[in-house]
Amino acid sequence: MPSSTSKYQYIDCDPDLCIGCQICEYVCSYTKTGEYNTYRSRIRTVRVDEVLITALACRTCENAPCVLACPQDALDQDPDTGIIVINAQKCDACAWCVEACDFGAISVNPLTKLVEICDQCEDQEDGPQCVKWCPKEALKLTTPEKQAQKARRDALKSIKDEILPKIPLKETTC
């Protein structure tokens, strides 16, 4: 069974910082297509409920389900970066990869009939443009290991903040 986790870098969004401005979508579509069109973006801003907004892009899964699902072998995963590469000559827009993606990070361009997936702006010298231009710095390149380390630090800080104030300090006399 494919894994939905990865050892590779991916773009992550901190929903506590994201304001749903969609600048990431506009910058992505302009970088990739030359037009400001959120439908052509490879990152999606998603409103989970009234107050929770986040952005989603390809998570560069190990043993990527999208690659495994493609009946035309039109998708390939770079073994060093995890970035999914599309072979335009083989892709027939069947959308099996769209269905296989656990994150909803793949779309089919209705004009070109090709799959579109975030490639972390690998052709841009300064990296992913969505990360660069996010006004709230809600987007960052990370790995699952970095995220796990952050979660552990946050949990320890939370425990410390909750428990330490409740421990009475003993007074000492000199």
Automatic annotation (TrEMBL):
- Superkingdom as given in the UniProt entry: Bacteria
The UniProt keywords, alphabetically, are:
4Fe-4S, Iron, Iron-sulfur, Metal-binding
Q: Which InterPro entries match?
A: 4Fe4S_Fe-S-bd, ET_IronSulfur_Cluster-Binding
Q: Which Gene3D superfamilies does the UniProt entry name for this protein?
A: 3.30.70.20
Q: 4Fe-4S ferredoxin-type domain: which residues?
A: 9-39, 49-80, 82-111
Q: Which SUPFAM superfamilies match?
A: 4Fe-4S ferredoxins (SSF54862)
Pfam families membership: Fer4_11
* GO terms of molecular function: 4 iron, 4 sulfur cluster binding; metal ion binding
What is the name listed in the Swiss-Prot or TrEMBL entry for this protein? Fe-S-cluster-containing hydrogenase component 2
| Provenance organism | Pelolinea submarina
